[in-house]
Amino acid sequence: MEFSFQGETQTCLSARLGLSLETESWDGKDWVYGQELQVMVSLEVLVDEESGEDGAAAPDAHWVMKPLPTDLFHSDWDDSAPEFEAWFGNDAPELEENRIRISGRDSSGQVQVEWTASCGGLPMTCSGPVEFSGLAMRVRKPEDAAPFLAKVHPAWAQLKPVEEEVVDFGEAMPEHRRVWHSLRFVLP
User: Fold this and answer.
1) Which of 22, 47, 61, 77 could cross-link 57 (Cys pair, CB 3.0–4.6 Å)?
2) SS3 168
3) Residue 46: helix, strand or coil by DSSP?
4) Residue range 2-50, pLDDT digits in tens
């Protein structure tokens, strides 16, 4: 991926696009499990060794993929997407006038992305292939995964996790929210 800002262009160290199926939602009083499922997108760019330092370039954007497009890998998004947030980096300005185009996936699984935005009135562009980390989700029981996947995207009902980890958040958490199964899936 190439990063352009203030007239300079450089090749990024890495870029990643990931999806997360959110299985909990807040109803104003408590966390509700399995009722309002949504797919959250994360696009993160590591420009150089200074990325992550305060004010350094490390663009990232997050949004809810709603409505879920027929083809996830051919879709366009902007600031109007639900829960859209984008930042130039850690302790850095918010990005505005965001336009993100996802335009295909190659045989190695990388996704072609073009992201334009404005940072303090100056144009920023990130363009090129990014690693696709697949679909992640946390469930209370592994058997919850298939019905949740089917509810969001019927074709995903047959997916099998390629990674699974049990996460225990400790005794301070309520019993019903303490232990989770973190799953990752590869999308067709």
Assistant:
1) 47
2) strand
3) strand
4) 999 999 999 999 999 999 999 999 999 999 999 999 999 999 999 998 8
Q: Tokens for 55? A: 């004010």
Q: Is 53 exposed, middle or buried (0-12, 13-18, 19+ CB in 10 A)?
A: middle
113: tokens are: 């992305």
Token couple for 110: 């990388």
112, 104 Cβ separation under 8 angstroms? yes
Q: Is the peptide bond before 67 cis (omega within 30 degrees of 0)?
A: yes
Residue 150 neighbours by CB distance under 10 Å: 14
Domain extents in the chain: 2-134
Nearest C-alpha neighbor of 98 from the set 115, 76, 112, 81: 115
Please choose, from the candidates 39, 109, 43, the residue with its C-alpha nearest in 3D space to the C-alpha of residue 78.
43
CA-CA distance, 35 to 6, in Å (whole number)? 45
